[in-house]
Amino acid sequence: MTSFFQVHPYVIGFLLSLLLFLAMLQLGCLFATIGDTGRHLVKQIVLVFAGTFTNLVLLRYLNEKIGDGFRPVLKSGWARLYGFPVEAEAILIAVLSIYTFYLFNLTWKSYQNSISRSSIKESIDNLPTGLSFSAPNGRILLANRRMEMLCRTITGADFQDAEMFWDYLTQEKNFKGTKRISSGDAPSFQLKDGTVWTFRQKVLQVNGNKILQLTAVDTTQLYGLSSELQENNKKLKEMNGRLKQYSENIDEYVRNKEILEAKMRIHNEMGQALLSSRSYLLQESSVLQEADILKQWNYVVALLKKESETKNPKNSWSYFVDAADAAGVKILMDGDIPKNEDVAKLIVSAATEALTNAVRHGGADELYVKLAKENGKIRITFTNNGQNPIGPVQEGGGLESLRLRLEEAGGSMTIETEPRFALTASVPVWR
């Protein structure tokens, strides 16, 4: 075995460097585990660091003595220490090294599996949404990169005061290079790159303290769908308006057509009567009889008095069916439309709303109409072959207006979504 005073100083220097490296690594593990819930790990690091540091100090002292040419007296304690085998010291350092790297591995796993300030910041920085927490006076406690980027893009300034930034967002003004989509409690902005961001502020209570949470959500897709929906609603509203106008003009059209048909029939019948009368007066033989001529003139008089039957014109429901067919929707009937024009008008109004909603929300091309009498009323149910709505149906202007008209007439209206969408209108028979 080789004692310390027999080895080259470079060997002791190498051992000192290795001990110093182990001590620094142990200190790093110790600082990384401060506040860790695993107290046993901290204790192990402290113990191994104490052993390493003690060994380092003693070896450093021996190295200095050997460098000064000190030769221990055999009876002194240093003599026994100098006689300590270097191989044993090397084994001790190897054990310390293995145990240090074992503790380092445990420390690294504990760091990765624990929640720290840096891990929280890293997590919110990776969020696709903007997020910040601040004190009521606007002092920022925590903010991610997305929120800081949005603040610089919209205002041109760094994100330093959350309350001031929120005041800017809620003001009725536009920022340079940014288009304001909406204001109020949820202001939205369209940036230069075309993305749309919606901001919201919420007050949180944490341990009795008020914390302001500011969030920014990318609503680009929602804005695009909303714009498309508004455009479709505009087109459908125009279509609905044309159908309503068409329905309102049906009565006048039918009346004028009926008058025209009556005039043409009177003209034809009177012309035939005049020709028959002339032939009767000019005939030499009695081919035409007076009774025949008189019968023709009596029929003309009856037409003039509107006592004769005329051809029934198309009613308002027929014109609605034609209009729906022109719009690409087939009407399938189960039952007969009442002849009373007031009842027919209400049914056509309900059918118009059912048709509009079937095309707008369900993309239907067939509208099913079922009529039945019950309890002195006519019950009309409208269904379609389109997609079923998701969630409850909100009554807009058209459905709400229809409900009011039906209730004023003594009827009612119900809407069902399961197992399929159905609009049911009830109209009194006496109407």
Q: Could you describe the 3D structure shown?
A:
This protein has helices at about 10-30, 40-65, 75-80, 85-115, 115-125, 145-155, 160-170, 220-280, 290-305, 315-325, 340-360, 395-410, and strands at about 130-135, 140-145, 180, 190, 195-205, 210-220, 330-335, 365-375, 375-385, 410-415, 420-430. The chain is built from twelve helices and eleven strands. The radius of gyration is 48 Å and the shape is rod-shaped. Helix 1 (about 10-30) packs parallel to helix 4 and helix 8 packs across helix 10. The longest helix has about 60 residues, at about 220-280. Strand 4 (about 190) and strand 5 form a beta hairpin. Helix content is about 55%, strand content about 15%. The chain has a six-stranded antiparallel sheet, sandwiched between helices. Strands 7-8-9-11-10 form a five-stranded mixed sheet, covered by helices on one side. The chain has about 425 residues and is α+β, with helices and mostly antiparallel strands. Mean pLDDT is about 75; it is low at about 70-75 and about 305-310.
